[in-house]
Amino acid sequence: KEEEIAIGFIDEARPQNTANTVRVWSFERAQSIKNTTKFNTNTIGFYAIKGNSASKFLEDSKAPSIANFLNDIKTSNDTYRAIVAIIDNFSSHKSRLVKQRAKELDIYFVYLPPYSPNLNPIEFIWKSIKRVLSVSFVPNLAEMKSIITESFCRFSECKSYAGYWIEKFILNNKHYKNLCE
């Protein structure tokens, strides 16, 4: 396994307890119970299509926090020779500190074109997590973090979020296909 390369997607999200992504039909007036206290949490994830996924709650999305998360990705994938991370063009992702830490950890970035979240399958995981939060009564930040962590672990096990990406960019490219075998 030491000769293998892990491949995944990195992205941040800021889920909140007040997001409403749920619509329902009701013939009678629906009664809803809502927590009016608002809170959110800065979250980052690595969705692995080969290797092990990882997630973490960050203080902020600045370069030192992102660089620190790269250590978590490497720890989760320490048996892999290298890690290829597909990532967007957020300014902290391109900082000197993040690039240096990635180099030290044998993490290689592939940057997505600007304004193309549709090419990053982890976006669908964040969307699914926000959906779970919107139908949950979340009394406090600790409970919210627990729901996010459990949901990320569950959803990141599903490779179907990256199905289109794998088919288009991996299976149709002999070189990349060899990386995933």
What's the quick description here?
With 181 residues, this protein is of the alpha/beta class.
Give short descriptive properties of this protein.
single chain, 181 residues, alpha/beta, Nucleotidyltransferase, domain 5, five-stranded mixed β-sheet, 5 strands, 18% strand, globular
What does this structure look like?
- The chain has six helices and five strands.
- It is α/β, with parallel strands linked by helices and 181 residues long.
- The chain has a single domain, classed as Nucleotidyltransferase, domain 5 (2-Layer Sandwich), CATH 3.30.420.10.
- It has a five-stranded mixed sheet with strand order 3-2-1-4-5, sandwiched between helices.
- The longest helix is centred in the last third of the chain and has 16 residues.
- The mean pLDDT is 84.
